[in-house]
Design a protein that fits this description.
single chain, 313 residues, mainly alpha, Rhopdopsin 7-helix transmembrane proteins, three-stranded mixed β-sheet, two-stranded antiparallel sheet, 12 helices, 74% helix
């Protein structure tokens, strides 16, 4: 469609991770395995928490919500990428692109908020054990999870609305495997400075606030742990935070590098590779991290496998 000698873009082309057909085959097979393992791992965690009686605690309630969010998070980008790799048709409509961006930004911000809630849970358990059941009661937990999704929804709605309020007149090739803010803004024929400022402020505020809450929680946790008289007691207490700290480091490290830089600091090629870490690898690793570092999860899994083996005998 022509309007004032400008072609109004109605769809985009996602260039993906590679144009080489041979590499695309490998990427499809690898991506499909990663996606299946990610869904299976997070579903296994949710199932274990729902069935194991000793896992009916606030910490594991939040972990099951994080696992569900991870499934939504990777599903916002992975199916489209696999579809493109399988069929070679990398076109995505304007509406499809905006929907994908909304889902991705919503689940990403929700995950960040949930990670800060989980840090608060560890603070309440370690620093205020006598009031823990009150501080993390079921109504409080439901409210915190609902607020996490509300924050994610606001982030996804506002950022997506501002990005797609711009004009796109061509070219329409997105140097990425999904519709993320930086590569889509790069294609706009409008002045993007205001939208860049708004999205930077919103994403930056969410990241700074959630990271600050996590940091403050762990400062208070460390101060409390240092008061424990024995080294073994300190290690045992702090070990309950190891999985959470590992996940936080991976998730926020890549997110901060990607989103809290000015546009002049963005390399589309670099961002495309880095985004694989926080969109694909992080959701894959999280179930493994929580399984390998959490003895209660391991015990529940062994107990479940033992029951199955007993039933077969």
């Amino acid at each position: 469609m022509e309007r004032k000698n400008q072609t109004i873009v109605t769809d985009f082309i996602l260039l993906g991770l590679s144009d080489d057909p041979n590499i695309q085959t490998v990427l499809f097979a690898t991506g499909l395995l990663i996606y299946m393992f990610t869904l299976a791992g997070n579903l296994a965690i949710i199932a274990l928490i729902q069935t194991a009686q000793h896992l009916q605690t606030p910490m594991y309630f939040l972990l099951s919500n994080l696992a569900f969010t991870e499934m939504c998070y990777i599903s916002s980008t992975m199916p489209k990428m696999l579809w493109d790799l399988m069929l070679g048709n990398k076109t995505i409509s304007l509406a499809g692109c905006s929907s994908q961006m909304f889902c991705f930004l919503t689940t990403a911000a929700t995950e960040g908020a949930l990670l800060s809630v989980m840090a608060y849970d560890r603070y309440a358990a370690i620093c205020h054990p006598l009031h823990y059941t009150l501080l993390m009661s079921q109504p409080v937990l439901r409210w915190l999870v609902a607020m996490s999704w509300a924050i994610g929804g606001v982030n996804g709605t506002v950022d997506t609305a501002f990005v797609f309020s711009l004009k796109f007149c061509g070219p329409n090739k997105i140097v990425h495997f999904f519709c993320d803010i930086p590569p889509v803004l790069h294609l706009s024929c409008s002045d993007t400075s205001f939208v860049e400022l708004i999205t930077f402020m919103i994403s930056g505020t969410i990241i700074i606030v959630t990271v600050s809450l996590i940091f403050l929680s762990y400062v208070l946790i460390v101060l409390s742990v240092l008061k424990i008289s024995t080294a073994q007691g300190r290690i045992k207490t702090f070990s309950t935070c190891a999985s959470h700290l590992t996940v936080v480091s991976i998730f926020y490290g890549t997110a901060i590098f990607t989103y809290l830089r000015p546009s002049s600091g963005h390399s589309m090629e670099d961002d495309r590779v880095i985004s694989v870490l926080y969109t694909i690898i992080t959701p894959l690793l999280n179930p493994l991290i929580y399984s390998l570092k959490n003895k209660e999860i391991q015990a529940a899994l062994l107990n479940l496998l033992g029951k199955k083996q007993h039933c077969r005998l």
